[in-house]
Write a structure and sequence with these properties.
Strand 1 and strand 2 form a beta hairpin. The model has no long low-confidence stretch (mean pLDDT 87). The chain folds into two domains: 56 residues; 233 residues, MetI-like fold. The protein has a two-stranded antiparallel ribbon. It is mainly α and 316 residues long. The protein is flat and about 115 Å long. The chain has 13 helices and two strands; from the N terminus they run αββαααααααααααα.
């Protein structure tokens, strides 16, 4: 074997070893990737995918969660919920809760955070702490406090109204008023968190832009509308989505503590109605159908979020 042939052979062996090492490295990386991904994947499949699939399966059955027999009823459960007065009332109430929380937990914190950053010169940290502190209290405690504050006979709200000659309503047993009370309980919990999010976003707006606008004698409203809002639109949109989600879930506890859905379903919402179907009336099929319908509504909001997200401002 000539010298050139030996060199070619050694080069081929080195190339073969390099290829083997590269293949082994890719194999080890694939194993490591699988091991790191496995816990999250298993948890997602067990606690998200499987419950959703089983819920879809239950929505086509009539079952009381006790009997071993399950009766297939097709789309009957879906038809029943759309002809069921309590469920339709819960949909209307859910819309009202969403509107209340969007006003109290998105619009108000937005303007208050702007005022704290650009209008308040002293005591900003104190105001932040005061406004955020109620968010640390649990929803159950908030519900108990609000049920006392708005009590028809002994509540301070009606006592204050009585002192100025106004007869206060029965807040906790009148449709409309009770939606406001439960909305205020959820606001107590959500407001502080959303305020902190908006404060962080507004503080990130370049000071040079604000100073330039002031030199041009722009009003505070123009500064907010032309500078603050466009540059914090991504945060505003995020807060909109989470507030929409909270409007469905956070009112469950105050409904359960204060009214149990009453009076005459005037305070119930979709989530509480699903709970009532399943664990009070033992109508698991109807509860599953209502849950799937709610999931479709939430997915619609997510798709809308993805579509509109392209129109909001993201730095860089």
């Amino acid at each position: 074997m000539t010298k050139e042939e030996r060199q070619v052979e050694r080069a081929a062996m080195r190339e073969e070893k390099r290829i083997v090492r590269h293949a082994n490295r890719k194999h080890r990386n694939a194993i490591a990737f699988t091991l790191f991904l496995a816990p999250a994947t298993i948890a997602f499949l067990v606690f998200v995918v499987w419950p959703v699939m089983y819920n879809i399966y239950l929505s086509f059955l009539e079952w009381n969660m006790v009997s071993p027999d399950k009766e297939f009823v097709g789309f009957a459960n879906y038809l029943k919920i759309f002809t069921d007065a309590p469920f339709l009332q819960s949909l209307r109430n859910s819309g009202v809760y969403i509107l209340i929380l969007l006003i109290s937990c998105m619009i108000f914190p937005y303007f208050i955070s702007f005022a704290m950053v650009h209008l308040v010169n002293k005591g900003q940290q104190v105001y932040r702490s005061i406004l955020f502190f109620p968010s640390l209290v649990s929803l159950a405690v908030c519900a108990v406090v609000m049920s006392f504050v708005f009590n028809f006979m002994t509540g301070p709200v009606n006592a204050l109204l009585k002192s100025v000659g106004i007869r206060g309503p029965n807040w906790l047993n009148t449709g409309g008023y009770i939606l406001f009370v439960i909305g205020m309980v959820a606001t107590w919990k959500i407001f502080g968190y959303n305020l902190i999010i908006f404060l962080a976003a507004i503080l990130e707006v370049p000071v040079e832009l604000i100073e330039a606008a002031k030199l041009e004698k722009a009003s505070k409203f123009k500064i907010f509308w032309r500078i603050i809002f466009p540059l914090t639109s991504s945060t505003a949109f995020y807060v909109f989505v989470i507030t929409f989600s909270h409007a469905l879930s956070y009112v469950f506890t105050p409904i359960s503590v204060i009214t149990a859905g009453g009076p005459n379903y005037k305070s119930t919402n979709v989530v509480y109605q699903i709970y009532e179907y399943a664990f009070k009336n033992f109508q698991s099929g109807r509860a599953a159908a209502a849950a799937i319908f709610t999931l479709i509504l939430v997915m619609f909001v997510v798709v809308l979020y993805q579509a509109l997200e392209k129109k909001v401002h993201y730095e860089n």
